[in-house]
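Researcher: Please predict.
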Amino acid sequence: MKDKKNQNLSSLGKFIEEYKLSDGVRLHMPGHKGAFGFEEDLTEIKGADSLYEAEGVILDTETEAASLFGSRSTFLGTEGSSQIIKAMCFLALKHYHEEGGSAEHPVILASRNAHKAFIYASMLLGFDIRWMSREDSAYSLCKCELTPVELEKYIDEFNKTQEQDRKSDLAAVFVTSPDYLGNMLDIKALSEVAHRKGLLFLCDNAHGAYLKLLKEDLHPLSLGADMTADSAHKTLPVLTGGAFLHVSENAPAGLEKDAKKALLMFGSTSPSYLIMNSVAESLKRIRKSDYDETVQKLAKLKGQLRALGYVLYGDEPLKLVIDLRNSVLTGPEFAEALRSYGIECEYADPDFLVTMWSPYNRYPRDTERFISALSELAADYLKKAKKKPAEFNFTLPQVHFSPRDIMFLPHKTVSVEDPSLIGKIAADAVLSCPPAVSPIIAGEEFTENIVSILLHYGVTSVEILA
């Protein structure tokens, strides 16, 4: 039976299982020595390979992942897409300089709904950011619509601001797709614009690793992105922290050559073998047919909710997002109501409630409990007279400092309701995860509009320059 079990394990899983069964004397880290049920938690002992110099069982996992996702190279991370985003930015900047770029602080053009890990990458790596954002009366923290025409306009407008005889400072384009609300950008068309302009196209695909497994392949790597950051743990059967850095077959030659160095710069030298093994085993476990069947189940569930009068939002197949902008209930209120039914959602803000589904939910139990709860809550949801949708007419704040220039300046905490906040300079991003997206970035000036947005999202205090 043990031999049969081992045949179904990944290379990494086989090594861990064999070491566990050997019942050897553990005179190495970790300090638990395999006690307390931690037998599978190892360190870089002989045969276990080493994540940042992988040439054995970990390399086998990365090779298998590259084959599944159709990448030229795939690299494993154990600290989520936060680690991968920073590494991806490092590789883009290195490519910029290797191609003859001479600006001290190259610029990455980014959609405004970037995760705070991208802001911290700017602080640590020294690149500047130019934001892409519409003036939008239907503003949400999580979304940033962007068309190919708009992207081309942003690039052209930036280039016009440069001196005529100076090489463009732009190093790459960075977008988030899917976003937290399930919106998906036209990656194919956007990447074509970026490539026509000679720029790398990077995608934070934290929520979309599973998109490769659908009947219609919607993964950004397949649609033209040069690199993507995938949080494997968000949508695949992987322990929290498991992530992929994918480099496309069509990316510039050599783009990935320093990927391990980049990942090590932003990751621990003691990566979790439990996380790595969960990634390795997931590649053996996942079936495309399971994801297609789940998409069909979700399509049916969404149809049932619409029949009850619910308005849904976003187009990502395995997110179910309820639009509460015209409802008497806010997202947190709706989420709390669902907890009384034993249902815990992914994310809620005043305007939206986000649920995430996978083949590993329990069907039909979970869908039946969900539809039963929402049937009972429908009457409250449909009371529309008590709440008017918030409209902010969002515009980008004035920039006084880059994020990197503000890191070590004196900060202080003040109340968002302090009248003197208007005109002050933000010293950090203001929202935690989820969604880790902020309406104001370090170095930008607070306006009445920004304060209104912060209050709308329940932010009570902020960091400003002292």
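Model: Residues 71-269 form a domain with the Aspartate Aminotransferase; domain 2 fold (CATH 3.40.640.10).
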